[in-house]
Design goal:
Blueprint lengths: L2 H12 L9 E7 L8 E7 L3 E8 L5 E6 L2 H14 L19 E8 L2 E8 L7 H14 L2 H4 L2 H4 L5
Antiparallel strand pairs: 1-2, 1-5, 2-3, 3-4, 5-6
Helix pairs in contact: 2-3
């Protein structure tokens, strides 16, 4: 390979992102509502890395990262199994019985296949086990330490 071609190859690969060696296992995203609903997303990798992105009405805005324990990862798997996530209709929660409610999107990736369910909290047809799963994910990862108590999330006057 000549020197010019080698320089082009090296330059083009220098900014390339490496292939993820620790794929995402669970993703949960909470979108806004008419009020002060916390808006954030979390990704949990197979190795237990929690990546958080706080957007609005949270104590911690921006990115944060922490490591989950093996027990927390087992608890997450158990929560998905208990909810029978794979049996929930992906369109279960598309209705709009009420307006101005938040949407929670949950994705589970297992064996190379992903399943995503968007739960609009204004839909009264949502299975209770899905809402329980959403709360269980937050509880297992200790999300309150990042989003804070309700008083921590209110907008402050400057």
């Amino acid at each position: 390979m000549n020197a010019v071609l080698l320089a082009v190859v090296l330059a083009s690969s220098a900014g390339a992102e490496p292939a993820p060696s620790d794929p995402v296992f669970v993703r949960l995203e909470r979108d806004g509502c008419f009020g002060w609903c916390p808006m954030y997303a979390i990704e949990i990798t197979r190795a237990g890395v929690l990546r958080y992105d706080g957007r609005r009405f949270v104590k911690t805005t921006g990115p944060a990262e922490r490591r989950l324990s093996a027990a927390q990862l087992r608890a997450l798997r158990a929560a998905f199994a208990h909810a029978r996530f794979e049996d929930i209709d992906p369109q279960c929660c598309d209705c709009m019985d009420y307006t101005d409610m938040p949407t929670v999107t949950v994705t589970l990736t297992e064996g190379g296949a992903s399943r995503t369910i968007r739960d609009y909290h204004g839909c009264s047809a949502t299975p209770k086990r899905l809402r329980t799963l959403e709360d269980d994910i937050d509880r297992v990862v200790g999300i309150d330490s990042l989003i804070g108590a309700p008083d921590d999330r209110l907008p402050r006057e400057r």
